[in-house]
Amino acid sequence: MNPTTQAPLPPLDTALTVADPSPDPLAATEIGDRILHEAIDRLPDHERETVRVFYFDDLSQEQVARQLYIPAKTFKSRLFSARRHLQPTLVRRLAERKAATFYAFPASAPPNTVAQAA
Fold first, then answer.
1. pTM of the entire structure?
2. Which of 18, 21, 75, 80 is 20 to 30 A from 59 (CA-CA)?
């Protein structure tokens, strides 16, 4: 890869696609949504506004640029920057969630481990 070329970031929704062993898929979705919204709330104002309008108002790039009164190139730059800021936060928070679920619902102990403990 050329040093001046940036690696493309995955779309925001794929950043949330993490296997969650939680017994309640609806609760896992609600937690994922809360994590996403908390991360978005921590973005700088101009990035937060860009993300919310683009993803939650379901507008095209051109429509968002017009609504925010900014050039399309500025919109794309803000969206890229917002994704770059969100990615490490989401990866870390979802990994924490996955680890917490693992410890809350551990796999059952192998039979010989139980017998050895007795």
1. 0.61
2. 18
